[in-house]
What we know:
Number of strands: 12
CATH architecture of the largest domain: 3-Layer(aba) Sandwich
Helix content: 40-55%
Structural class: alpha/beta
Strand order of the largest sheet: 7-6-8-9-10-11-12
Shape: elongated
CATH topology of the largest domain: Rossmann fold
Order of helices and strands: HEHEHEHEEHEHEHEHHEHEHEHHE
CATH superfamily of the largest domain: Response regulator
Number of helices: 13
Oligomer: single chain
CATH class of the largest domain: Alpha Beta
Number of domains: 2
Largest sheet: 7 strands, mixed
Amino acid sequence: MTHLGIVALALALLIAPIAAQAQQAGKVYSIGYLGLGSSFEEPNRTAFYRGLQEHGWIEGQNFVLTTRFAQLKPERLREMVAELVQRRVDVIVVQSAEAALAAKHGTSTIPIVAVSPADAVAIGLVASLARPGANVTGLSYLGTELIAKQIELLKEAVPNLSRVAALSNPANPTHAPRLRAAVIGAQRLRVQLESIEARTPSELDKAFATIMRARVGGVLVLSDPMFAAEARRLVQFASASGLPAIYGFRNFVDAGGLISYGPDFPNLFYRSAAYVDKILKGAKPGDLPIEQPTKFELVINRKTAKTLGLTIPPSLLLRADQIIE
C-alpha cells in the first residue's frame, strides 16, 4: 500500500467512529414502559424522568416513551409485551414481578429494566443478582426479607397482638416465598398467622369477611399492585373493623392506614434511569448487577392510631421517617 493509501485508510478509520457517534447523537430512542396497573403513577414517573434528565435524556428530543398498561389483568401482560416488541422499542422498563416475567417471556433480545420486582432470583427472573445474564437487569426490593420486620413493627405498635391476618395475592409470584417468611417471622414473635387470599378486587369483600371470622388482632397486607390500586378500600376496611394494619407502600398511610414500612419506591425509579442510560449507550443488561434498595421508609399515621385507640410507643415514633398527625 502506498503512503497516500495508508493515510487515506487511517483517516477513514478515524472518521468512521466520529460519524457513527454523530448518527447516534441524532437518534431518538424509544423507551417502552409496561405496567400492571392503569397508569405510570406519581411520584414514580417524576422520579424516573428526573433520573433520565440528569443523564441527558429529554423526552421529545432524544427519546420517546411508549406505555402499555394491563389494567390489573395479568393475563394481558404478554399481549402488551408483544405490542412493545412490534414497535421495536430500544429498552423495556417494567414495574412488578408479573410484568417483568411477561417481558422476559416475550423477548430475549430487547433489554429489560425491571423496577421493584421482589426476590428476582427466587421467582426465576434472573440467574443471580451479581450477574443477571440474558436481557434482564434492574432493581429488586427485599420483599421477603422485609416481611418479618413488618410483623415485628406491627407487634411493637400493638404489644398484645397474638393473631395476624396476612393478606396475599396468589397471582403474584413473589407472595409464596413471602408468606413462608411471614410464618417464620410470626412464630419467632409468638404470633399466629392466618393466610387470607384475594386475586382480584372482586374477591376483596370475601377476604374481608374471612379476616373478620378469623378474629385477628391485626393485618399484614403484602405489597402488590392490585392492593395498591385498592388502597383506600383496604384502609377503609381496616378502619371500620378497628384493625391495626401494616403495609409495604406509603400510599396506604397517606390514605389513612396505620403503618407502612418498605423501600422508597420513587428512589428505585430514579435509580432505574441510570440502567436505561447505560443500556442505550451500549451496555449489556446481563452484565449489569441487580441492585437492591438503599432507602427504607417507616411512616406512621398518628391520627389513625388515635382513632383505633392505640398509643404508639415513643421508641417506635422516634424511628419513624415521617409521622402523619
